């Protein structure tokens, strides 16, 4: 065997151990002549061409009638993609449930805001009287040995109550110097487009003030109640108090301007401004629906919507009081105002429903997320009712939702002082009866909210216990 034969044998041996198999080969030897393969493939291609040509001769040529017949009788089976269509159906059901679940959360948050707001007029004055009584009697008790002199004169909660009442009184006295009649005619003399821009500016300012105000109030309370034994890095209680008073006055002026502008829109013969203000709510959809939201961001948006709804409700109540006073408290005036107020509130609610429905739709969030939000508010409610709570309920609601009751409380006192005249024993009796009614309503709201919170927390704890037991098993 020559050298050429050895090279051929090596080459043949290398190809024989190859793992590549041809689909057209049988079970025999894997090494075949390339010419044989080429001839076989050519013959098969000729056979396929001949077969297709025979089939084409047998089929009818395409026509318009045949195309229409296929389109009219063509069938399809959706169950071949069952998972996709089931998911689409669940999205539709979830989209329909969003307004109901969102409204449950907003109703619970709305009454939490109402509870925090009514606290300013009901329990805060009583707590202020108790704090003043303690400020007067405790030094006397210390002199006679009934109380240890080493203890601080006032508790932190009593100091905060005194500061709150002082802020409300000072700002209310300043607000009584504002002539609302002049403000009303000044705003009414402006054009519609100017009032529309002015109202939007007031809304932006209200949000900015709400974001800043709670930080100022918290810093004042902490500065006033900080323990004396530690190092203090602050400028003093009085500067913080002045900052908070200035903030509450500016925010109260802004709220009063909002109420006056809304009053002009509702009471004007031309409803163009009111229509523009209502349609402005739908512009909000453009700025929120097409953004990316996660669960935490949506919670902040939902809390902001709750605050805006309660804020709008208080503004409309102020408008009704001012208008009824101008028309001598006639019943016909009330029934003329009610439809416009209901339309404004319904527009706000519909916009919230649509906004949250599409936000959850685009961000793949389930409708159960609003139950988690309600549970979070329930835990906040239960936390503030503990014996040694870290903060007051009104302050916690302000941090969670951005709702600060002090500016709205000052504006309401200003409006009530202008619209309701308390003169004589009968008027004093009616005012006392009204105070008792408002206090009873506040207690009813607090008990109902606390009962719902306990029910939600108990159910949540039961679910966690069941899940824990199932994991252990």
Labels describing this entry:
473 residues; globular; 16 helices; mainly alpha
Blueprint of the fold:
Elements: H1 3-16, H2 34-58, H3 64-73, H4 82-119, H5 123-143, H6 156-175, H7 180-188, H8 192-225, H9 237-267, H10 272-288, H11 295-326, H12 331-362, H13 369-384, H14 393-401, H15 405-419, H16 425-472
Describe the protein.
The protein has 473 residues and is an all-alpha fold. It has helices at 3-16, 34-58, 64-73, 82-119, 123-143, 156-175, 180-188, 192-225, 237-267, 272-288, 295-326, 331-362, 369-384, 393-401, 405-419, 425-472. Mean pLDDT is 81; it is low at 1-35.
* Helix proportion range: over 70%
Order of helices and strands: HHHHHHHHHHHHHHHH
In terms of structural class, how would the helical and strand content be classed? mainly alpha
What summary fits the major beta sheet? none
| Assembly state of the chains shown | single chain
Radius of gyration: 38 Å
Describe the structure concisely.
Helices cover 78% and strands 0% of the residues. The chain is mainly α and 473 residues long.
């Amino acid at each position: 065997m020559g050298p050429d034969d050895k090279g051929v044998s090596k080459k043949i041996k290398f190809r024989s151990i190859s793992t590549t198999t041809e689909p057209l080969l049988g079970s025999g030897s894997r090494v075949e002549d390339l010419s044989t393969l080429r001839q076989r493939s050519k013959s098969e291609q000729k056979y396929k061409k001949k077969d297709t040509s025979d089939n084409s001769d047998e089929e009818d040529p395409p026509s318009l009638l045949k195309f229409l017949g296929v389109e009219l009788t063509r069938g399809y089976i959706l169950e071949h993609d069952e998972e996709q269509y089931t998911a689409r159906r669940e999205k539709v059901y979830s989209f329909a449930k969003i307004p109901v679940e969102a409204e449950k959360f907003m109703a619970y948050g709305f009454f939490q805001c109402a509870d925090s707001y009514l606290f300013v007029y009901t329990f805060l004055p009583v707590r202020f009287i108790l704090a003043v009584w303690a400020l007067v009697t405790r030094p006397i008790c210390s002199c006679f040995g009934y109380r240890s002199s080493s203890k601080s004169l006032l508790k932190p909660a009593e100091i905060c109550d005194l500061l709150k009442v002082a802020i409300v009184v000072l700002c209310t006295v300043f607000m009584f110097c504002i002539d609302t009649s002049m403000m009303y005619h000044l705003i009414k003399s402006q054009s519609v487009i100017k009032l529309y821009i002015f109202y939007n500016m007031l809304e932006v300012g209200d949000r900015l003030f709400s974001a800043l105000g709670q930080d100022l109030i918290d810093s004042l309370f902490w500065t006033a109640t900080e323990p004396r034994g530690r190092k203090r890095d602050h400028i003093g209680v009085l500067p913080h108090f002045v900052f908070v008073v200035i903030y509450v006055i500016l925010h109260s002026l802004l709220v009063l301007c909002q109420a006056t502008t809304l009053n002009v829109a509702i009471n004007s013969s031309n409803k163009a401004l009111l229509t523009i203000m209502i349609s402005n709510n739908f512009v909000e959809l453009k700025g929120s629906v097409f953004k990316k939201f996660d669960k935490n961001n949506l919670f902040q948006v939902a809390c902001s919507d709750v605050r805006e709804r309660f804020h709008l409700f208080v503004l409309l109540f102020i408008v009704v009081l001012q208008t009824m006073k101008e028309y001598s408290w006639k019943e016909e005036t009330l029934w003329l105002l009610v439809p416009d107020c209901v339309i404004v509130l319904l527009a706000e609610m519909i916009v919230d429903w649509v906004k949250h429905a599409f936000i959850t739709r685009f961000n793949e969030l389930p409708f159960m997320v609003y139950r988690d939000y309600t549970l979070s508010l329930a835990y906040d409610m239960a936390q503030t009712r503990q014996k040694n709570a870290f903060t007051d309920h009104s302050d916690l609601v302000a941090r969670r939702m951005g709702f600060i009751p002090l500016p709205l409380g000052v504006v309401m006192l200003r409006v009530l002082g202008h619209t309701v005249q308390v003169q004589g024993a009968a008027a004093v009796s009616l005012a006392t009866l009204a105070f008792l009614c408002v206090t009873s309503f506040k207690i009813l709201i607090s008990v109902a909210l606390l009962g719902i919170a306990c029910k939600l927390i108990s159910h949540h704890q039961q679910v966690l216990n069941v899940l824990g037991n199932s994991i252990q098993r």
